[in-house]
Every structure is written in structure tokens, then in C-alpha cells.
Specification:
This protein is of the alpha+beta class. 49% of the residues lie in helices and 22% in strands.
């Protein structure tokens, strides 16, 4: 703005100087021209007086500054101060002469052949009918301007120098208050009332921008708060793969400490699935894929972002689906195991029944075959019942009402029901502790105690023990079932609660069971907001502790 004002002042100064110079020259030229006419008139009057009194001799005795011509009434030249009168043509048709004959006086102006000079004529009719004409030469305006070009240039240079100095100071002085304006709080009644409308508009615009910024900041804080607390990862990138936004969830899932705004998203992860998903989104496709990071499995959703019909970036959502995938794998494994476990007794029942239908069985063997059918049917029913129990616990669909259950009495009852099995395996079962009331589903709690106790008996050694304790231990309400059995290897402890998982498959086949007991224990405990702890040493025994939360 300073430069613009500076240039404007210089231009105005130069143009003003030139305009004034031309205007003054014009005024002076007109003034001197009028003055010249007046002098010519005075000289014509004096000449007329002289001729009337002295005749032609008066003219011959004058020293001439201007040209004097005496013209007869017929237009012929009687006398001329600059030329031989006889050699001059008739002047009757000259403009000033004709006007003098007609009106008593006349004047005219004519340029020379080079237009460098202008001749001014004045003619006056005398009493004897002759005309006296006075002529004077005068330089034209352009001639005068050309003659004054050198001093004019000098003056112009002086004007430009002064203009530059003054314009520089003046432009800085003009702009200084504007540069010092506080645009956040403009002084509307300041040094320049002319810009008050602009300052008012700036003030209104500032208030609007402040409101918008507050709204934007609030929205950004809300967005940050939402995305920061998301367990899912959220990444926003531009069409050049530069990171625009990345929440803590994404950094945690991808194992990074930070993501610098503007750096490529591929710095966070360089796996093939990640790269293909982002490239697909930036090409306009919706991409959904799985990728593995260490022991975790992530689902990756990448969607393009459009602006004005063109792709301007992409949004990437990362979700940890490790548990979901594991559950899906467990579901498939469970389905496969269920099919296998159901197929075994059904095949046995079908084979035995087919032999009996075909009459191949001897009458004395009929009882043994019927006993086998009964045994396999019982095994099948037990398996189906266990599957139903697990499904109910998984789906939280147990319909029995909760009640206060004495866990000590429940443990004693389970030990009593398992006494025959314990005797058959030469295992001693003992119950100790104190009355412990748990508000829950009696049948589910009974399954927990029964299955733990049954496993302690089945996986024990001849002459071994199973000890059941119910009560408060270290400030915790617990059901503890410990045995002196074969124990559980360290590498198998993480999987013993999986459905149909067996540590020793050959031993399990000998002792029977569905392979769902500990799964029922784990899910039943979770249903009652309890946890299961396991301690075990191979060939020394195991201890299962169910820790119950306080009743609410």
C-alpha cells in the first residue's frame, strides 16, 4: 500500500506540474496576445495622426519595430515599411483590410510557412478613406514550449526529486496508522474516519470468526474426546497418504508412540494388506480386510472421502477382532468336536441296533447289547445336556430364578453323590469350611462344584485325595477343590477351559466324560460374576479356586 501511495503521489505531482505549466503558458500567451493587439491599436492611432499631419514624410522618418502598411481605398499599397509598395499585390481582400473598410477597424492572425511564427495584423480606416495597417510577428505556443524545454526539464527534475522525498515521507505517515491498527480490536473512531465502514465490517467479521472458531474448537474437542476414548483406531489421510488425524487407539493397535501430521500413513504400518486397503480407498473403492500384527488380528475398513466429485482422502478404521476371530475359530472347532462326539455314541447305538434288528445277536448276548445301547444313550444325553447348559450360559438365557444357596451344603451333597465313583477309584473326598451363602442359580452352582469334584476324582491316583473347602480365605469368598492327581502341564493350563479340550486324550477316553466340564465351570462362574484360578504341578496335583464377588 505504501508503494502504491508513493507512486500515486509522484504521478499526481508530475501530471499537476505539466498541466499547470501548459495552463499557465496558455493564459500568458493569450494575455500577451491581447496586449499585442492593444499595442497595435495604439500604434495605429499614432500613425494615423502622423500621416494626417505630415503625410508620407512622417512614415519615412520613423524607426520601425512593427511593419506599417498604408493602403489606398482601392486596395493598392501606398507605402510599406518592409517592402517596395509597387511590388506588393492588392490588399483589398486581406481579412483585416476588408473588415476595416467595412467596420472602421479589423484584425487577423496568420501563421508563417513554417508555423514557427504567427503574424498579428490590425487595420484602421482613416478619415480620407485610406487604411493604415500595423503588423507584428509573434512566436507560436509550440515554439515557445520547445524553446523552454531545457529549463522545463530542469524544473521537472526538481519537482520529481521533491515529490519523491515528500511522497516517501507522506506515504509512510499515511500508512503508519493503518499498519498499527489492531485488527482484532479496530479503533473505528481513529485517525481515518474514511475507513470506519471497513473497520466496522472487520469488527463484525472478527466477531463472526470468533464464534465460528469457538464452535470449531468445541467440535474439535468433542471429536478428539470421542476418538481418543475409542478402542478402535481411526486414521484420516489426504489423497497423498499424508496423515491428517490419528487417534490414540490407532497408535496403540499399530504399536506406535506417535504419528506426525503430514507424514505418510505407511510409516505406521507397511504390511501388504494395509497398503492394498489404503490404495484401494484412494482409488475410490470400499476396502475391508484382515491383517495380523504380532499375535493380534485387526479388521481394517478403508473408505474414500469425496469433495466436489473427486477423491480428497480416505478414512481408515482399525478394530481389534482377535477375540472375535478366536471365538469364531472356537465355534468352528466346537461344531467339529460336537459332531465328532455325537457321532461316536450314535454310531455305536446304530451298529448295535442294526445287529439286533438283523437277528444276529444270540439270546444270551441280548442283555449285554442292550446295556451298551443304554450306556451310549446315557453318554449322548449327558453330552446334549452339557451343550444345552453351555448355550444357556453363553446366551445368558438361564431361566431359573436366583436364590440364596449354601455352598457348603452344596459341596457336601456333591461329595455324597460322587462317593461311589470315588470308592471305585480309591479316592477319598473330604469337605471342610464354613457356611457360605451365594445368591445365584442353584443348578449352575451345583454343576460347578460337581464337575470340579468329579474331575479331581477321575484324574487322581489310587489312594489319592480330593479336598473341598468352602469359606472365606484371605478376605475372599472361595470354593476350593484340590486333589493329589496327575496335574496339568504348564503349556496346557491356558486351554483347559476350552470346550472338548483334553490334556491326556488317551486317559480321558478311559475315564469317559464329555470334555465340557471345565467349560461349564468357567462359564457358570462368569455367570455369577466369579473367577476361576488354577494351580497345578505335574504328578503332584491341582487346585481349582472359584472366587465369588460380594453379594449385591
Amino acid at each position: 500500500m505504501t508503494k502504491k501511495i508513493f507512486r500515486s503521489i509522484i504521478c499526481v505531482s508530475v501530471v499537476t506540474f505539466l498541466a499547470c505549466f501548459v495552463f499557465i503558458m496558455g493564459i500568458l500567451y493569450d494575455y500577451f496576445n491581447a496586449q499585442l493587439i492593444s499595442e497595435l491599436k495604439s500604434e495605429a492611432v499614432l500613425t494615423e495622426y502622423g500621416i494626417e499631419n505630415y503625410g508620407e514624410d512622417y512614415l519615412k522618418g520613423l524607426k520601425y519595430d512593427n511593419r506599417i502598411t498604408w493602403i489606398d481605398s482601392d486596395g493598392s499599397v501606398i507605402y510599406d515599411s518592409d517592402a517596395d509598395a509597387a511590388s506588393l499585390e492588392n490588399h483589398a481582400e486581406r481579412e483585416e483590410v476588408a473588415e476595416a473598410f467595412e467596420k472602421g477597424s479589423g484584425s487577423s492572425q496568420r501563421y508563417s510557412d513554417t508555423f514557427a511564427e504567427r503574424n498579428v495584423y490590425y487595420a484602421k480606416l482613416m478619415d480620407d478613406g485610406t487604411v493604415i495597417r500595423i503588423a507584428s510577428s509573434q512566436y507560436t505556443v509550440w515554439t515557445l514550449l520547445l524553446a523552454m524545454i531545457q529549463p522545463m526539464i530542469f524544473v521537472l527534475i526538481i519537482v520529481i526529486i521533491l515529490s519523491v522525498i515528500l511522497a516517501s515521507k507522506l506515504s509512510k505517515k499515511i500508512v503508519k496508522p493503518i499498519n498499527e491498527l489492531d485488527l482484532d480490536h479496530p479503533d473505528i473512531d481513529g485517525d481515518y474516519p474514511e475507513i470506519s465502514p471497513l473497520l466496522k465490517k472487520i469488527s463484525r467479521q472478527n466477531m463472526l470468526i470468533d464464534r465460528q472458531m469457538r464452535t470449531l474448537k468445541r467440535n474439535e474437542e468433542e471429536f478428539t474426546a470421542i476418538t481418543s476414548n475409542m478402542s478402535e483406531g481411526l486414521i484420516i489421510i489426504d489423497r497423498g497418504t499424508a496423515v491428517l488425524s490419528c487417534n490414540r487407539g490407532a497408535l496403540k493397535l499399530l504399536g506406535k508412540d506417535e504419528a506426525k501430521t503430514g507424514e505418510s500413513v505407511f510409516v505406521l504400518n507397511r504390511s501388504e494388506n494395509f497398503r492394498k486397503a489404503i490404495e484401494g480407498a484412494l482409488s475410490g473403492e470400499h476396502k475391508e480386510t484382515l491383517m495380523e500384527c504380532g499375535s493380534r488380528i485387526y479388521q481394517l475398513l478403508a473408505n474414500p472421502v469425496y469433495e466436489g466429485g473427486s477423491i480428497n482422502g480416505a478414512v481408515i478404521l482399525i478394530m481389534d477382532v482377535t477375540e472375535k476371530e478366536k471365538q469364531e475359530e472356537m465355534r468352528r472347532e466346537f461344531t467339529s468336536n460336537v459332531s465328532h462326539e455325537l457321532k461316536t455314541p450314535l454310531t455305536s447305538i446304530y451298529g448295535i441296533s442294526e445287529i439286533m434288528v438283523n437277528g444276529i445277536v444270540k439270546p444270551e448276548d441280548m442283555g449285554r447289547f442292550a446295556e451298551n445301547i443304554h450306556s451310549e444313550s446315557g453318554r449322548l444325553i449327558t453330552l446334549v445336556n452339557d451343550i444345552i447348559k453351555l448355550s444357556q450360559l453363553d446366551e445368558n438365557s438361564v431361566t431359573t430364578e436366583r436364590e440364596d444357596v449354601d455352598m457348603l451344603a452344596l459341596a457336601k451333597d456333591a461329595a455324597f453323590r460322587l462317593k461311589t465313583v470315588a470308592d471305585d477309584n480309591n479316592v477319598t473326598v473330604s469337605v471342610s469350611g464354613e457356611k457360605l451363602i451365594i445368591n445365584g442359580i442353584r443348578s449352575v452352582l451345583d454343576e460347578i462344584v460337581y464337575n470340579l469334584c468329579e474331575n479331581g476324582i477321575k484324574y487322581n491316583k489310587p489312594g489319592g485325595r480330593v479336598d473341598i473347602f468352602v469359606g472365606v480365605e484371605n478376605g475372599r469368598r472361595v470354593l476350593k477343590v484340590s486333589d493329589t492327581g496327575i496335574g496339568i502341564p504348564q503349556e496346557d493350563r491356558a486351554r483347559i477351559f476350552e470346550r472338548f479340550y483334553r490334556v491326556d486324550k488317551s486317559h480321558s477316553r478311559k475315564i469317559g466324560g464329555t470334555g465340557l466340564g471345565l467349560s461349564i465351570v468357567k462359564h457358570g462362574a462368569a455367570y455369577h460374576n466369579a473367577s476361576v484360578e488354577v494351580e497345578s504341578k505335574v504328578n503332584e496335583g491341582s487346585c481349582f479356586t472359584v472366587v465369588f464377588a460380594e453379594n449385591k
